[in-house]
Design a protein that fits this description.
mainly alpha, 8 helices
Length: 222
């Protein structure tokens, strides 16, 4: 009798053990556990995602640095040409004075515009100062048109040519600067770079405005 009761008990115990270890010798996950292979796969996935996020952050940060350096370099090129323009103006004014000393109002406008350029601190202020200089030089050259001898003066012609070359270089440098400012501002305003820009102190940069005369249509005279 005792043996008859013992055999079913052993079978029941064997079924319990097999259910717990799934007949493989490995414990089942259960509601609170996880299969080791699944846990390993999840860990690998998290590491891959984390690595991609780090690479994205590095790429965006370096991209913002590159664009910011390009903007600074472009502005330094503009500044060189603006200083060149600044230095040419006094010689030009003195040459015109030799033929039209009575045009004091024109000379005063040029002097004021040059002073505004010297005191300009920001890019926007520099743009306004350049517009003033352009308008003042336009009046100065209008005065020169009334004096054929002045127009034929070798020094005046040389200064005029140098100034024209400087204006062309300023226009080219302005375009390069504004293109990089647009790329930089677009990047730091876009997601997810915007979050990174705020964390690392990247702020928007100002455009260097086009001179007013450059916006006017070309006038052809016959």
């Amino acid at each position: 009798m005792a043996l008859c009761h013992l055999v079913p008990f052993e079978r029941t115990l064997d079924r319990c053990v097999r259910r717990e270890y799934n007949c493989t010798g490995r414990p089942l996950g259960g509601p609170k556990g996880m299969n080791p292979m699944a846990a390993q796969a999840l860990l690998v996935a998290l590491l891959v995602i984390g690595g991609l996020v780090v690479l994205l952050v590095i790429y965006l940060y370096n991209r913002m640095i590159v664009l910011r350096q390009r903007i600074n370099n472009a502005w330094s090129q503009i500044d060189v040409q603006l200083r060149r323009r600044y230095d040419l103006i006094p010689n030009l004014v003195e040459t015109v004075k030799g033929y039209a000393a009575h045009e004091k109002e024109v000379f005063e406008k040029v002097t004021q515009a040059r002073a505004a350029m010297a005191s300009a601190g920001t890019v926007a202020e520099q743009g306004q100062a350049q517009n003033m200089i352009t308008q003042a030089l336009k009046s100065l050259f209008a005065v020169a048109e009334a004096y054929p001898e002045l127009k034929a003066n070798e020094n005046f012609m040389m200064l005029q040519e140098e100034l024209a070359g400087t204006e062309s270089k300023i226009a080219y440098a302005r375009q390069f600067y504004n293109d990089n400012v647009m790329a930089y501002n677009t990047l730091i305003q876009s997601f997810p770079a915007r979050m990174l820009a705020g964390a690392f102190g990247f702020t928007e940069r100002d455009y260097f405005p086009m001179e007013e005369t450059a916006r006017e249509p070309v006038k052809v005279q016959f």
